[in-house]
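Support request, please re-run this one:
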Amino acid sequence: MNRKQGQVVAAAVIAFFAVCAPSGVNAQLTADAAPPAEDRSVFAVPPGLGGKVEFWRDMFVKYGKNQRVFHHREFPEIVYSVLDFTEYQATLSGRDLQKTKEQAVERETRRIQSALRSLSVSGKAANPFERRIKHMFAGIGRDSPGHYERAASDEFIRYQAGLKERFREGLVRSGRYLYAIEEIFRAEGLPPELGRLPHVESSFDYEAYSSAGAAGIWQFVRSTGSRYLRINASIDERRDPILATRAAAKYLKNAYAHVRSWPIAVTSYNHGLAGMIRAIEEVGTTDIAKIIDRYTGRTFGFASKNFYAEFLAALEVDRNAARYFPGLQRETPLRFDEVKLGRSMTFRDLMQITGESREKLSWLNRSFRDPVLTSRVPIPSGFMVKVPSGKGQRLLAAAANSRQVGLSSAEAMDGSIKKRKPRSSLPVYVVQKGDTVGGIAKRFRVPEQDLAAANSLGSGRTIRVGQGIVIPEGSEVLAEAQRPAKTKALSANRERTYTVRPGDTLSGIAKKHKTTVAKLKKVNPNLGALLKPGQKIALP
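Re-run finished. Output below.
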């Protein structure tokens, strides 16, 4: 990324260098470019991990999806054999293909077990296959009957499907956001190489969603993601590559502050920070190779033990993508503007102001879910909305020219922002004593789920007296209130009493209702200087 592409173009607009699809939403491709200069010593392969890194590098660049690589579970650098199912894929399908594969895997497993048990009994290789196995075990100092016998159990014979095609596709997709991701890590004072972790987590699949509920390229589960991101029925920020990257940077920065070791901090992204702190305490070191070899934590399994080696292998392949994948073209880095909303607005309004299609805006703002995309609930104030490069200025212009548009306004081009209390462009109800979310939803005749989503209320749906609750579009009560026949009655009601809102003052209320503080106090004898949200004030 070019530094000029990252400059601020207006006070509330950040020009980003991620993807801006010039036509439709299909990203262009560009020839693979050399990455910016890095301190390669930060993520040098530590002693004792070289074999694992080599194994994963081969999985990424040598073996494809039709191949199964049989290896030792604890020492994956011991590769027994490789089965290639390409021919089966071409001639069989369905259950026949699946059955044939299962039978082949079973036969190969038994062949490996037979060789290992033979070595455990005699200690001598009886054929070339056993000689090769013996040579590999000797290479890691495990050439003994006990090691062969242990390796022969079903638990320690594992096979891995090749990942060559998937990794190549991830390299292509990574071009869309990688430079923006690396710049976020630099801004946090972190090594930009950490931006390659999504190769391991998701292969930069922007639609990734795991069976365990992990979402986005950083694969945050809800429990971890909710510490850093907004996750509710209308917005899931885990799915936004930029927002999720900022969260990942915060997580890794915090993890490193605790353990002062990048191998441990990176591994904690898979195993959890508390788990890695326990590992350090049990083994008595931050040496990742020793922890992998000695730590006996119940949940510290194959994925956690290999996570850092996978990352290092992915980093090496990414750095040398042109060598491993000649002719590779990555997607063109996206360019877009980010605008922080000063008040809530609907997605429909965003489309109208920017002149962009729902498809393109939803493609840029991946965190928006159906309630937002259909304008049933608003985009909340304070949200960093993304628009095609250059359209951020249009949003700022709309903010300056219309009070109906809820955008942060700017004083000048120097990056300073005029502070303004967020206001909602949708109706707001002030919570009274005894109110519940369900009761408010029933009162305004809106789905309770839509009401909760519009106000980012969690599963507990806790509300407090004086809190402003946005009423989403579709309220039957508000629709009736907007009819001419009801206007006079509503106005009369407002003239009799006023409900105090957060931030209100007596002088402000008096000015709003074209009266004086003295008159307000006259009709409210017990009125003190301190107002409480939800308090009722009689009007002259």
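The longest helix spans residues 94-122. The CA atoms of residues 116 and 360 lie 57 Å apart.
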